[in-house]
Amino acid sequence: MVNIRGFSLVFAAALLLLGVFISIPVGVQSVGVCYGMIGNDLPSKSDVVQLYKSNGITDMRIYLPDVEAMNALRGTGIGLIVGVANDILIDLAANPASAASWVDANVKPFVPAVNIKYIAVGNEISGEPTQNILPVMQNINAALAAASITGVKASTAVKLDVVTNTFPPSAGVFAAPYMTAVAKLLASTGAPLLANIYPYFAYIGNKKDISLNYATFQAGTTVPDPNTGLVYTNLFDAMVDSVYAALDKAGAAGVSIVVSESGWPSAGGDSATIDIARTYVQNLIKHAKKGTPKRPGVIETYVFAMFNENQKPGEATEQNFGAFYPNKTAVYPINFQ
């Protein structure tokens, strides 16, 4: 995760003094939590898995393959996103054998005992390295097929700046051609696009024009999309639907979005308090059962993150996105159901 999130200034200006009203339907949807490991005081991997189980958290995202964590997940049924490190994409793109070795080492020994759902080919890749994403996905898919592994989908995790013209949401379009190619591959394999969605960064970047209520799913005014007539009551929905609009324009209207990260820091910076973080995260979990105006229905969503990670680089907020302290006590009360 980084501190710069793509967001249209035009969109931000249009959100002046807005708020939110959320209607929460009855229903059950699994909500995952991202398990970052950039800390020197975190619990054992087996204790972490038990913490997921005891809190009813049904899905996990890890950013690199971790044998100890994956072994601890055996037989639990917890769904897993496994990341491919950004710094090995060049090799995996150029060498199908390297992709096959990655699958042999990091997927084949664990399925079906570990419920691996998605492989995230890189996280928030930008610049020239984005050209490696498509060939790595193709090579990973070929390696999975050669190993007779079914049900594991290769995708990539993107931040919002892969989309431009985000206001109104229906105007969203991919900013670079590589994303159109990625979207078409996802459409052909039935895999979702993994999207990291952070109203927090948009809000602190333009507090003059974006209200805290609108950013945190709280009550207030509504915003219609003049092109579709759809009405937006929170920033999260508008961000997600701008990505859906880009998928439509890329000829991949059938591709779903999995929100692979979303959260709010509880300390360390602007508007980072325990109370606001709890409000955002709890409302996010509830809202995942509802869907967006463009795509009603449940949204598979991963809260960022499980723990405060004391060795994360960047702003102090980066170390304070956790729902739990490293001693396994809750930063704030939260219901993951």
What does this structure look like?
- It is a single chain.
- The two termini are 25 Å apart.
- An eight-stranded parallel β-barrel has the order 1-2-3-4-5-8-11-12, surrounded by four helices. Strands 6-7 form a two-stranded antiparallel sheet. The protein has a two-stranded antiparallel sheet with strand order 9-10.
- The chain is globular and about 55 Å long.
- By secondary structure, it is an alpha/beta fold.
- The chain is built from eleven helices and twelve strands.
- Helix 5 packs across helix 6 and helix 6 (133-146) packs parallel to helix 7 (177-189).
- It has a domain at 32-62 and 159-324: TIM Barrel (Alpha-Beta Barrel).
- Helix content is 31%, strand content 15%.
- It has helices at 9-13, 45-54, 67-72, 89-94, 96-106, 133-146, 177-189, 199-205, 212-215, 235-249, 274-287; strands spanning 31-34, 59-62, 79-84, 115-123, 153-159, 163-164, 173-174, 193-196, 223-224, 231-232, 257-262, 301-303.
- Strand 4 (115-123), helix 6 and strand 5 form a beta-alpha-beta unit.
Gross geometry? globular
Note poorly predicted spans.
1-28
Q: Give the H and E element order.
A: HEHEHEHHEHEEEHEHHEEHEHE
**Helix share of residues?**
25-40%
Number of helices: 11
What's the CATH C level of the domain at 32-62 and 159-324? Alpha Beta
Radius of gyration from CA coordinates: 19 Å
Name of the CATH architecture of the domain at 32-62 and 159-324: Alpha-Beta Barrel
What is the fold-level CATH name, i.e. the topology of the domain at 32-62 and 159-324? TIM Barrel
Distance linking N and C termini: 25 Å
Share of residues in strands: 15-25%
| Superfamily (CATH H level) name of the domain at 32-62 and 159-324 | Glycosidases
Number of strands: 12
Q: Note the main sheet.
A: 8 strands, parallel, barrel
Mean pLDDT across all amino acids: 92
Structural class: alpha/beta
> What strand order characterises the main sheet?
1-2-3-4-5-8-11-12
